[in-house]
Amino acid sequence: MSFSKPNRSVATLTTTRVTPAPGSGICVTCVDGCKGPCEIGRSALKGREVIYPAPFGVITSGSEKDYPVDFSHFNIQGTAVGAVGIEADSDKATFPAVDTTTAVGAGGNIKLNFPVFTGAVGSTDIARINWEHVAIGAAISGVLVVAGENICGMDPKAEFKNGKIARSPEMERRVDAFKQWYDGVGGIIIQANVEDAKLGVPEYVIEKLGIEIFELKWGQGAKDIGGEVKLPSLERAMQLRDRGYIVLPDPTNPAVQEAFKTGDIKEFERHSRLGMVDEETFYKSVEHLRSVGAKYVTLKTGAYRPADLARAIKFSSNAKIDLLTIDGAGGGTGMSPWRMMNEWGIPTVQLECLTHQMCQRLAAKGDYIPPIAIAGGLSLEDHIFKALALGAPYVKAICLGRAILTAAMVGKTHGKLTAQKMELEGEDVKQGYLRLFAVGAQLKERFGKDFTKLPAGAIGMYSYIDRLKQGLQQLMAGSRKFALKYIDRNDLVALTRDAAEVSGISYVMESDAAEVDKILG
What we know:
The protein is an alpha/beta fold and about 525 residues long.
């Protein structure tokens, strides 16, 4: 059977005329005269534009490939016996008593109210437009928000001096939006890729904007290349090419300029360069960030081959960084090549299992293991439980990229609709928010008159995390684990032999075998 769906996808706005062949994705009978609604046909007309999910700027996208082992191939073990982390008393061991707080940082100094944080909300239009909702949602939820790559470089109002960033109003806006609502739990992480490093972004945000947590980026689970966005104007294309980015087609080419003016070319692509990982350079980068004032240094790596995962874990161990985020294939992005998103990289379950094996080897030697976060296609409380358990005791948090952004966008959309309705009826908009959001009254009590300043998307994100919290508490109570630190691999059971082989988790028919023998005598 084929795990993929080549040549047609809602992501690329393509389909096939008849049932396609499973391998090629081409219609079983490809007819001369067909207008070509498939990816091949669309490419014959639109070429490289069809590489990317559409429409750009208003979507996020995630892989639709069916991987042979995923988190659905595991179930969470429950028990009717005892309680871990609380007195085994039915009046005390209730699910609301489950502690879902966690901490990251080499010394456990970055506290989180819940073990999730945002994906990197970077330079794409959808990230820029929704930043305020996500950042404030993170601040009031007590979790981390990540400001992604290329923000300064993409800022049309950015000021440069000697090729380095001197001021970025857009980055200032991002940082200020979070800090205005930050109450000491969670935090804001600024991320840098190779382009950001060239422009001096780390030094700027640490020294000028007071950023304490800085993230080096090797890659992500959605793609094996640098970041990219689409540019709607020749002026923007020229500006970003002048700043050192790769821009296609070349906006300095007179023929390209003429084609854009006549409408034959409607947009440009901005691409980031590939980073080149080197062990000594990595250590120097970490030390440099600390020397210019970074209190915490983290690393984000992607779904690369196992040797690269080993490098990420070993280098992070040696450098004693504060968080290592490992992003598996199957997750999402604001813009990535569609086939790459589906067909490259190690899926999240396998990547996490390899991570656990490697951490076990280092731990056996007494090496430092950085707090680890797992990302890649996760969205609900059972995913959070399973990812924490599969990587226990090393995985401390889960990165929810598209899921958190979805909650913020839906909250924002319904906030706009509610505002329109309330204004037509001559009623107070925020009173409408109290009826719209289940957490409205809770936030009104917490923030008082400042409740009226909360963006609807931030409330939506908070509501989503509040749901995740109760859902996770219920799952943990069923496993009789009353704090996150007690979740372990024995809390899972593999439903298939393949899942058991990949993970080392007991197959369902063999789970608890020794204890069963002991009970039955």
